[in-house]
Design a protein that fits this description.
Structural class: alpha/beta
Strand content: 15-25%
Number of domains: 1
Number of helices: 9
Number of strands: 9
Order of helices and strands: HHEEHEHEHHEEEHEHEH
Largest sheet: 9 strands, mixed
CATH superfamily: Glycoside hydrolase/deacetylase
């Protein structure tokens, strides 16, 4: 890609928005007018429900969780049981999830629609949700009270829009959709309006924000670069783990 094209993409898709520094600034700006609440809130005051669907990186999730906690903000991190990019049963990943919990953030289930597809009925959906809910609760030793759909376009899953399903709050439920303005960074750019535009709009008082931690990095990068950084970073961690394991057992790393 030519330099001019890169500059155009950077401006069009607001690459510079998605840095840790800017994230901190956005949260500080939001706190001037909004409270941060959970999906269980009944508040009618101006507030934001902040959610993270963790598709790719627990490492990035912990970085954002620390920024939020430092500002006295609580959010909800939705974890995938069937992710191709991280394993919640892996020791290092599990420990980072526990750190996020210690920072007082809530954990939700990011339900992987594609893993169970086709989901033909609400009865099917409830059984799969209960199955994943139980696994996550047994691992983390805490109640899971909220879920979000991963890949919600599959099987027209959004038609199941009850406010509560399988004993959990459905973040795509009718009530939340009706009451809240929505902001999303899906695919590494603002899908609708930017978070800054929304929190600067005095006509908007209740906001549901969906973020994906992998998009928020130290430096300004394209979405493709951000994903590559997460994938390659995890691979490097695995290489180091293998070396450390061999050294710990007194074995050679031959080759």
């Amino acid at each position: 890609m030519e330099k001019s094209s890169k500059k155009n993409y950077s401006k069009k898709y607001c690459f510079s928005d998605f840095t840790e520094k800017n994230y901190r600034q956005l949260l500080k700006l939001a706190k001037k007018r909004f409270e941060f609440k959970s999906f269980h809130t009944k508040s009618k005051n101006p507030h934001i429900i902040l959610r993270h669907d963790v598709d790719i990186s627990i490492h990035r999730s912990l970085k954002l969780a620390k920024i939020e906690a430092n500002l006295g903000i609580q959010s909800t991190y939705f974890l995938r049981l069937h992710s191709e990019y991280y394993n919640i049963f892996e020791k290092e990943i599990f420990q980072k999830i526990k750190e996020i919990i210690k920072l007082k953030h809530e954990i939700g289930l990011h339900f992987d629609v594609d893993f169970y597809s086709p989901i033909k009925s609400k009865k099917n959906l409830v059984s799969y949700l209960l199955k994943d809910k139980k696994i996550l609760e047994n691992l983390l030793l805490r109640k899971i009270k909220v879920f979000s759909y991963h890949n919600p376009d599959i099987d027209k899953i959004l038609k199941f829009d009850n406010d509560h399903i399988a004993g959990m709050v459905n973040v795509y439920g009718k009530n939340i959709k009706k009451k809240y303005s929505y902001c999303s960074d899906s695919n590494g750019f603002w899908r609708f309006n930017s978070l800054k535009d929304i929190i600067s709009n005095e006509k908007i008082n209740q906001v549901h924000v969906l973020l994906h931690p992998e998009w928020w990095q130290v430096n300004s990068l394209s979405p493709k670069q951000r994903i590559i950084r997460c994938i390659e970073g995890k691979a490097e961690n695995n290489k180091l783990l293998y070396k450390k394991t061999l050294k710990k057992m007194g074995r050679k790393n031959i080759g």
